[in-house]
Amino acid sequence: GLSRFFAEILIAGEVGVAKPDPEIFLLMSRKLNVPPEECLFIGDSAYYDITGADSAGMKTVLYGAKGADIQDLTRLVENHLAQEPDVQD
């Protein structure tokens, strides 16, 4: 699956907090040792993903167009990051 693309995975059932509760997003932020305002969360649900991550202080991208593929997602993230003047490499 997609797990090979991620340094960490957080499963709501294992931590007892579920989306859209901002705490699950903050847990991942702490697990990665990255402040929430430096995180970019990509989700396919405006309510569960985007509302929760935004409430935690993260940048967000809503992704879920039917027929979209990984190249579309890559372009979407690159475009989003290019628009963020405070993002550092």
Topology, pairings included?
Blueprint: H1 12-15, H2 22-32, E1 40-43, H3 46-55, E2 59-62, H4 70-82
Parallel strand pairs: 1-2
Helix pairs in contact: 2-3
Describe the overall structure:
This protein is mainly alpha-helical and 89 residues long. The chain has 4 helices and 2 strands. Strands 1-2 form a two-stranded parallel ribbon. Helix 3 links the parallel strand 1 and strand 2. The longest helix is centred in the C-terminal third of the chain and has 13 residues. The radius of gyration is 13 Å and the shape is globular. The protein starts with 11 loop residues before the first helix and ends in a 7-residue tail after the last helix. The model has no long low-confidence stretch (mean pLDDT 84).
The N- and C-terminal alpha carbons lie at a distance of 27 Å
The shape is: globular
Percentage of helical residues? 40-55%
| Strand proportion | 5-15%
Q: What is the mean pLDDT?
A: 84
Arrangement of strands in the largest sheet: 1-2
Biggest sheet, in brief?
Answer: 2 strands, parallel
Count of alpha and pi helical runs:
4
What letter string, H or E per element, gives the SSE order? Answer: HHEHEH
Structural class call reads mainly alpha
Number of strands: 2
> Could you list the spans in which at least 5 consecutive residues all have pLDDT below 50?
none
Rg from C-alpha positions? 13 Å
